[in-house]
């Protein structure tokens, strides 16, 4: 048993922290306010190989490990949850399935530019009538000569409209139920592919969340990812990894909020002494730190299992369930500890509280995580 | 062109706390960083590497084995290779003994056109090692460089002074010490971190390896004696608080600046 990060992981944290503080934090409030996608953050991250941390160097990545990647998402999310999820969705949900299920040609054509950050990736599973019930896909893909023809729509797609490469799920054989779902790599300029509504969200407002529309969309048949009918398995295993990213994001949000609050408690004076001297508030701080540390251990354990090739589906679900709950609880308390100021946009904790909520919803709601955990225990 | 950059690993003084009783630095648990001015020195070397073909950037440091982390960071920023002078014989070296050891290390590395150092380290603030090193090697030096141009086999440097600057031209080889105004250091790349730790770009050198006489380095060869540590009195500068609401303050500030002939 060893709770120490390696020297590599420590340095990744140091670099990510400095990068987040100097490059990302200064625009975090602005992109929240305006809902602007922070393209410059993506370009800067690409420059320093942050867009493909756990992808092998031969495929354009940094050749790092999954804990380093979780740390990167965590550090970004401490100051800007939007940037955290841009990286997480890109790496976990777009790069990883191509790495794991793609052919050598697909890896060269799509994974290399993604992992280098020259292109941005997205993952499109959710539909208006297929949320938690992801198997109820209504988008269809029909083989027609050398192409598949996709028809249908997707909603709530993170990086949607901004991404260049999409992993899209569609029914190739409705009679087989979830075993009739297949996965495709779709380029943004594929004929018949367009972007619909961009969501106006409570939090992570700089992150683009879009509707994707496929109208007789032509996708070359060599862009089938894995085998026909393998789509549901690809989606579920991809989400297992994605949950580590979201859990790391939630962890970062909680840590960022507590850091801001500790600073505030030391500065803010009431009754002639700093808030930090009031025992009732000290107890809240202590409880928050315990929650954060527990969340951190769960997140790193899930990342460790993935890195070591051990099962991680249940561990990732536990990490996400607990870290997202922690993010919501900690940020709510942090707003409380800031009093009236915490409710204003003069302090970042109200943004963090709004950002925290989504971590209990996307890439599987908390209830889905509980289903995954319970099914692993009761099987 | 061969460029050698000297760097030092120092405690991050932003994170250092002072022992209230002894008045000394509490170094335990304090993260280590590349000395900030040295990062500017490295950035300038890398900038030259970006601009010209066939530029090799070699980094050298003297320190305990854990100083390797600083060299990994330098590799991750883009240096080609790095050497760490690490040996018990070097322990306790003052600036003079340090520059003796670094000079031996640089002679061991071989040919160079430019040597960059940071102006001074944040843990000692002496600004001596760079100039001493140039003397050991018998090459010219330009300190406090805030702007640098390469013109063939010459450099033209803007040397910052407290109330002005010199423009100095020198042939190569020359040693330059960088100040933070020189540039904005880049971040290390994530890929470079792994290459630094896993690859063979970093080599460790002992006193014997670089052929330095062990009697000329380390504590016994250090002429400096520390008699007392204290916080120096700050230079007396005029400090004035302006009164009034923000608008009045701004107006008063402009008036005062005009009175002083600053604007």
Description:
The complex is a heterodimer of chains A (379) and B (263). By secondary structure, chain A is an alpha+beta fold. Chain A folds into three domains: 7-115, Butyryl-Coa Dehydrogenase, subunit A, domain 1; 121-231, Beta Barrel (Butyryl-CoA Dehydrogenase, subunit A, domain 2), CATH 2.40.110; 233-378, Butyryl-CoA Dehydrogenase, subunit A, domain 3. Chain A has ten helices and ten strands. In chain A, the strands form three sheets. Chain A has a four-stranded mixed β-sheet with strand order 1-4-5-8. Chain A has a four-stranded antiparallel β-sheet with strand order 2-3-7-6, covered by helices on one side. In chain A, strand 9 (269-270) and strand 10 form a beta hairpin. Chain A is globular. The model of chain A has no long low-confidence stretch (mean pLDDT 97). In chain B, helix 2 crosses helix 5 (190-198) and helix 3 (95-109) packs across helix 4. In chain B, the strands form three sheets. In chain B, strands 11-10-9-12-8-1-6-7-13 form a nine-stranded mixed β-sheet, with helices on both faces. A two-stranded antiparallel ribbon of chain B has the order 2-5. In chain B, strands 3-4 form a two-stranded antiparallel sheet. Chain B has one domain: HUPs (Rossmann fold, 3-Layer(aba) Sandwich), CATH 3.40.50. Chain B has 263 residues and is an alpha/beta fold. The mean pLDDT of chain B is 91. The N and C termini of chain B lie far apart (44 Å). At the A-B interface, helix 1 of A face helix 2 and helix 5 of B.
Overall strand count of chain A: 10
Largest sheet of chain B: 9 strands, mixed
Helices of chain B, by number, come to: 6
Mean pLDDT of chain A: 97
Please identify, by name, the CATH architecture of chain B.
3-Layer(aba) Sandwich
Ordered list of secondary-structure elements with their pairings:
The complex is a heterodimer of chains A (379) and B (263).
Chain A lengths: L6 H28 L4 H9 L18 H14 L1 H21 L2 H12 L5 E4 L15 E5 L2 E12 L6 E7 L9 E7 L5 E6 L10 E12 L3 E2 L5 H37 L1 E2 L2 E2 L4 H30 L4 H30 L6 H10 L7 H13 L1
Parallel strand pairs in A: 1-4
Antiparallel strand pairs in A: 2-3, 3-7, 4-5, 5-8, 6-7, 9-10
Chain B lengths: L1 E5 L2 E3 L5 E2 L6 E2 L5 E3 L1 H16 L4 E7 L5 H10 L3 E5 L9 H15 L4 E5 L10 H9 L3 E11 L2 E8 L2 E8 L2 E5 L11 H9 L3 E4 L40 H14 L4
Parallel strand pairs in B: 1-6, 1-8, 6-7, 7-13, 8-12, 9-12
Antiparallel strand pairs in B: 2-5, 3-4, 9-10, 10-11
